[in-house]
Design goal:
Layout: H1 8-21, H2 29-50, H3 65-83, H4 87-101
Amino acid sequence: MNDKDISLAQLQAEVDRWITTTGGGYFSPLTNMAVLTEEVGEVARVMARRYGDQVAKPQDEHFRLADELADVVWVVAAIANQTGIDLTTAFLNNLEKKNIRDKERFRSPS
């Protein structure tokens, strides 16, 4: 898939297609949760060493934030697929919740 713009539904479909054809099948949801934790840890490592106060090590040079974030999105899509969650609907519902809950939160002085 070479489209620059991709919907969440397309993302989920592409992840499913790859996992079921190239990847050989899904890991269990619990294993995918562990993989997600690992991938978020990689994001944290890049952030801490590139944008935070930690000093990067020579072996950290191959880590790219964009790639690590893409890994996180990939595993989230896989978990959503496995658990029957439509990420488009979930995201829109979550955005509506935030709009209602936080309508004035970030505009009003404390």
